[in-house]
Amino acid sequence: MKRIKLCFISFLAYPLFNGKANVVFGGAEVDAYNLARKLEESGQYDITFYVGDFGQAQEEHYGKIKVRKFKYMNLDTFQSFSSKLLRHWNIVAEVLKIDCDVCFVEAYNEMLGWVTLIPGRLKGSRTIFRLAHDLDTDLADAKSKGRLYHSLYKYGIHKADRIVSQTDIQKNLLKSQLGIESQVIKNGFFINEDINFDGKRAILWVARAQSWKRPEIFMEIVKRLPEEQFIMVMPGENDLQARMKEEARLYSNLQFIDYIPFAQIQPYYNGAKLFVNTSEYEGFPNAFVQACLGKTPILSFNVNPDKFIDVNGLGYFCQNDIDKAISFIRDYTPDQMRVLGENASGYVKSNHDISKISLQYEEIIRNLVSGDKGEMEGG
């Protein structure tokens, strides 16, 4: 049987392949990486994964996955005007080389337009676009990033052969704002059953150093609960990280960690008694899934996609009320942790097992290769 050629594009996913690369990434990169790894196991696909430029070779191999880079695609390193010109030139040059049956894009940028325009229109390949954030449905936000960005992203989202949403909220936003249908498929993870409640001690916060993650709220919780132990993991070398790192020195009950490779982060979720999310907005955070993988209940301030915390009994949604959050932590018992933690484990096995998630994508891929876009269904 002929193997299907798949292409994944996710610029910041390189450190997921090479743990020595100190690069900050998010949930979208993890989602694409997990899917590529799972599809690789089947032996039915030739997979090429395109990432950004972090000083690595043009092409590397990890297992059976070929990893190629877009030269100069690293905005932190290549900031000059000439680098910008070279970056755009090399994007087009590299996209022209793409030879695939189906291309998977999970990036809110102009790359979606280039892929649907060049491999899609010129070579007949099909495109799956997976929303990573609720803002991915907002063309006004895309317009604020520049004319080329807006034009290519708008073209791509309307011309993609299949669009996948993370949540019903995203599905409804996409339909109401752009008139585009999508299929809901949750984030996929590899499941580990070996979690011990007895070792859970600290309250955990993990997020990139970005203002909308609102780390100052977590710092306030640390300050008001000196009897608790806290861990804060905050990758991203910028002024916000430096400020939080300096403030963390004031609290003996807080361990601040500026970077942990992805392959080493899950034990922190497994060992936490509670995971705290203070973000102003998100799509469906992979950190929520990682907490559930570790049987760790969730305390969330403003993010509760499809009310999944309440519906599944996974923790507490405090609706941006820090006093309610403090009260919840003070009243939090080991028995409550176990009940909510077991709920979290059951939820993640039912909804985020990569073995099940990959089957949904494989159906989409087969339909696209056979020339049938299929029906957009909820998931």
Quick gist of this model?
The chain is of the alpha/beta class. It contains 15 helices and 14 strands.
Could you explain how this protein is built, in words?
This protein has 379 residues and is of the alpha/beta class. The protein folds into 2 domains: 4-188 and 354-369, Rossmann fold (3-Layer(aba) Sandwich); 197-351, Rossmann fold, CATH 3.40.50. Helices cover 44% and strands 16% of the residues. The protein is built from 15 helices and 14 strands. It has helices spanning 14-17, 27-42, 81-97, 111-123, 139-143, 147-159, 168-178, 215-224, 239-248, 262-270, 286-293, 308-312, 322-331, 334-351, 354-369; strands at residues 4-9, 45-51, 59-62, 65-69, 102-105, 126-130, 162-165, 183-184, 202-206, 230-233, 254-257, 272-277, 298-300, 315-317. The strands form 2 sheets. An 8-stranded mixed sheet has the order 3-4-2-1-5-6-7-8, with helices on both faces. Strands 11-10-9-12-13-14 form a 6-stranded parallel sheet, sandwiched between helices. Strand 12, helix 11 (286-293) and strand 13 (298-300) form a beta-alpha-beta unit. Helix 3 (81-97) runs parallel beside helix 4 and helix 11 crosses helix 14 (334-351). The protein is globular.
